[in-house]
Amino acid sequence: MARAQFSAETSEAGAFVRQSNRFTGRVTPHSSSPPGAGPDEQNRWPLEPGRYRLIWCRACPWSHRALIVRNLLGLDEAISLGTVDPIRDERGWRFTLDPDGFDPVLGVGFLSEAYLATDPDYTGRVTVPALVDTVTGRVVTNDYPQLTLDLSTEWRRLHAPDAPDLYPVELRPEMDQLMADIHRDVNNGVYRCGFATSQQAYDEAYTALFARLDALSLRLAEQRYLMGDTITEADVRLFVTLVRFDVAYHGHFKCNRQKLTEMPVLWAYARDLFTTPGFGETVDFDHIKRHYYATHDEINPTGIVPLGPDLHGWTTPHGRG
Tell me, what's the pLDDT at 7? Predict the structure, then answer.
């Protein structure tokens, strides 16, 4: 069997099995803790504007969707933002983009410092996004699926007056199932392709990925967005994978039946979102390519970052809407 990029997250059959999220605290107005205090007995932190800091990486799809949701809801003043370097070494995510290599608010040079301040015995992989409490320096959550849903629901009183409803109550049962399918086969599916260490594990992930993309193409051929005429969290979750597809997943992760640009409906849909305020301006193709090609040394041992593909098509007319 080939060597695994993350051996602790690879099954005996060679399949990539993503680690669980260690920190699952939630910021909510229902916390019984007073302002400035830590979590209550149910691990609920008090909702306070300006207290929490979202740590993200421009290259990472999981943190990218947290940033998009934060911005769409107008929470950019309520939640500050810290950005890590796209190149992650054996010590993890670094704040080398900041002066002197330290996050100016948290005062740490590595995100792992906040993880260990929260759990001194933590030995798992340090991941982004992470919502960090600036009062204690502790990680509130790295549970990326729940984080963005909470931004729509628990943070509502801090939303901008014209903020969209990204998680409509009446659509949640259908949305939850759709987002679960997208996560399994697409969002995490590309990683299951790329990090597979057996042919069988790769074949299964590849087949599921493109079957799901075909199903999504049929769905989006009939409507502008995944849930109809308005953007929801489901669109955010799909977009962050699609925008990385040709620059990273098609070649680096061997998701190569077709490029996104060769799937007409999904390509038009992705361009539609890219040119929507809150989406395209948050994309950094340089960081994306440098992260994937320069940090997965078991997949790309030379560390060479490709010059392509041509990105000019992202701003061409999409013909939707």
Answer: 60
pTM (predicted TM-score): 0.95
User: Residue 1 above 60 pLDDT?
Assistant: no
Same domain for 265 and 232? yes
| pLDDT of 8 | 61
- 300 lies in a domain? no
Q: For the packed helices 61-72 and 144-153, what is the interaxial angle rounded to 10 degrees? A: 0
Q: Given 60, 115, 193, 202, which residue is catalytic?
A: 60
Burial class for 109, CB neighbours closer than 10 Å (0-12, 13-18, 19+): middle
Instruction: Please tell me whether residue 105 adopts helix, strand or coil conformation.
Output: coil
Q: Is 191 a catalytic residue?
A: yes
Of 245, 260, 276, the residue at which a domain comes to its end is 276
Phi-psi region of 254 (alpha: psi -120 to 50; beta: other; left: phi over 0): left
* Mean pLDDT of the region 108-134: 95
Same domain, residue pair 149 and 24: yes
Spatial neighbors of 105 by CB under 8 A, at least 6 apart, are: 53, 80, 82, 134
**Annotated active-site residue in 144, 167, 191, 206:** 191
Number of domains in the chain: 2
- Segment 211-252, tens digit of pLDDT: 999 999 999 999 999 999 999 999 999 999 999 999 999 999
Domain final position from 132, 158, 184: 158
